[in-house]
Amino acid sequence: MSTFSGLSRATTALWAAQRGMDVTGQNIANVNTDGYSRQRVELTALNGAVTPAIHAVSDGIGSGVDSNNVIRIRDAFLEARGRLESANSARLTVTSSALASIESAFREPGDTGIQSMLADVWAGFSDVANTPLVSAARGQVIERLQTLAAGVRSTATSLDKQWEDTRDALQTLVHDVNTTATSIADLNQKIQLATNGGLPANELADERDKLVSSLAASVGATSTAGEDGTVVVSVGGSTLVNGNVATAVRLDGATGSAGATADKPRLVMLPGGSRLQVGGTAEGQLAVLGDLIPQYLGGLDTFAQSLAGTLNTQHAAGFDLTGAPGGPLLGTPTGAGTITAANLTVRVTSPDRIAAAGVGPDGVTPSANGNNADAMYELSLDPGGVDAAYREMIVGLGVVSGVAKRDLAVQTVVRDQVDAARESVSGVNLDEEMTNMMSFQHAYSAAARMVTAIDEALETLIRSTGIVGR
User: Fold this and answer.
1) Which position among 32, 76, 425, 458 has the lowest Cβ density within 10 Å, counted as fewest Cβ atoms?
2) Are both 67 and 87 inside the same structural domain?
3) 10 Å Cβ neighbour count for 126?
4) Are residues 174 and 53 in the same domain?
5) Residue 219, C-beta contacts closer than 8 angstroms, at least 6 positions apart
6) What phi-psi label fits residue 367: left (phi over 0), alpha (psi between -120 and 50 degrees) or beta?
7) CA gap 289, 282 in Å, rounded
């Protein structure tokens, strides 16, 4: 038996305890660091000699402890689940926020909403029907029509501005995705070099995982472990990062809301231009640009065209104060072209030109009555008319927005639960770290005491053995 083998064991024990305290100190120092995963020293018993030999002096006990391996504590399943739920939350957040902005653009219910303006117009025609020869009542109808047209144009402008802002935000997101992908590729290369060189890269891996999580929320990215510590990042089945190579992403499609239905905005890979099936924030923004806002802009255009067509048709059936048939009440600024919510304009400017009168008792000659104005008021009571169609659209918007808010609330709870479960595994617990610190401290003291005992034994062996009888 060699006493020096015991000293070797004690040395590995000292090193293991020291390394354990170092790792514990690192964990405590990063307890509030975002994205940090707690680390742990993997202690492995070193085996003694297992090869038989004639002159072997091994005591067969073992060679101490190996503490070179420091691992990150992470649950791969919870990490993947957390990124998935984060992407879903980001998508629903965009959708809910966009619907809330669309509701604000319509300003319903409220005194400044189109429904209120439309009600004022119907009430104005009712006043004209009661007092067809009063110029003030006729002028009031024109003013209310102008207010209604301005309200429709304002709503269209708000929706168009929301579309442009969303596209600008998506363009910024694309730039951030490209930058993040490049950073992940750089970290892959550094981690690969460290792994091949036998050096620890836990902090670099934490930084990379944080960037991958950012991509998951942005575009629904997923990651799989590659070789030598690298990861492969994919989006919708397309590889975004492989090793130290990152693929760029570009925003294609319509640059204005007018062409968004025919040429929907989309993200494509460069080079090649293959379409990306994205998730997360990008998926929500693309849905807003290609479907949500164009749907309500189209609904508003339909409302403007229906309103103009209904009012113009009925107005043409009456006669103004000069006895002439009624002309178009609403149209485009030039009177030509397709009517849209963005160009809806009142064409009648003179109160005398309001065709409030119908024909007289003979059924042919115009009369100074308010029959046609009353008929125009009756349009508001049509269950299939423009008023009812507009209410149906607004009610539908409210229902969709309410569902989106509830979905987001439920998804937020799910995401928070998954994040809490993930944090319970990879997060730093100070109570646990304090326990580990005391454990390693006592282990270090015991190992140091062992070194002292072996030193005393060696001193006795060297200084005292063989001196009897001198």
Assistant:
1) 32
2) no
3) 18
4) no
5) 173, 177, 235, 249, 267, 276, 278, 279, 280, 281, 282, 283
6) beta
7) 10
Residues 6+ apart with CB under 8 A from 408: 89, 92, 93, 95, 96
Look at residue 45 in the predicted model and tell me its pLDDT.
87
In the numeric block, the tokens 């009177």 are attached to 335
Check whether residue 400 and residue 457 sit in a common domain: no
Statement to judge: residues 68 and 95 lie in one domain: no
Residue 407 lies in a domain: yes
pLDDT above 90 (res 217): yes
How many C-beta atoms lie closer than 10 Å to residue 45's C-beta? 11
Percent of the chain with pLDDT over 70: 93
pLDDT tens digit sequence for 245-285 = 999 999 999 888 888 888 999 999 988 888 999 999 999 99
Residue 271, preceding peptide bond in cis (omega within 30° of 0):
yes
Give the β-pairing of 245-246 and 266-270: unpaired
What average pLDDT does the segment 341-366 reach? 80
Tens digit of each residue's pLDDT (9 = 90 or more) over 120-167: 999 999 998 888 888 898 899 999 999 999 999 999 999 999 999 999
339 within domain boundaries: yes
Confirm whether 219 is domain-assigned. Answer: yes
Burial code (b: 16+ CB inside 10 Å, e: under 16) for 139-168 equals bbbbebbebbbebbbebbebbbebbeebbe
Give the whole-angstrom CA distance, residue 141 versus residue 311.
12
**This prediction's pTM:** 0.86
3-state secondary structure 390-439: HHHHHHHHHHHHHHHHHHHHHHHHHHHHHHHHHHHHHCCCHHHHHHHHHH
The backbone torsions φ and ψ at residue 339, rounded to the nearest 5 degrees and listed phi first, read: -75, 130
Please provide residue 217's backbone torsions phi and psi, each rounded to the nearest 5 degrees.
Answer: -70, -35
- The answer to whether position 470 is within a domain reads no
E-only strand ranges, 10-92: 39-46, 64-72
Percent of the chain with pLDDT over 90: 59
Structural domain containing residue 456: 3-73+427-463
Q: Are residues 85 and 62 in the same domain?
A: no
Number of domains in the chain: 2
- Structure tokens belonging to residue 222: 């997923």
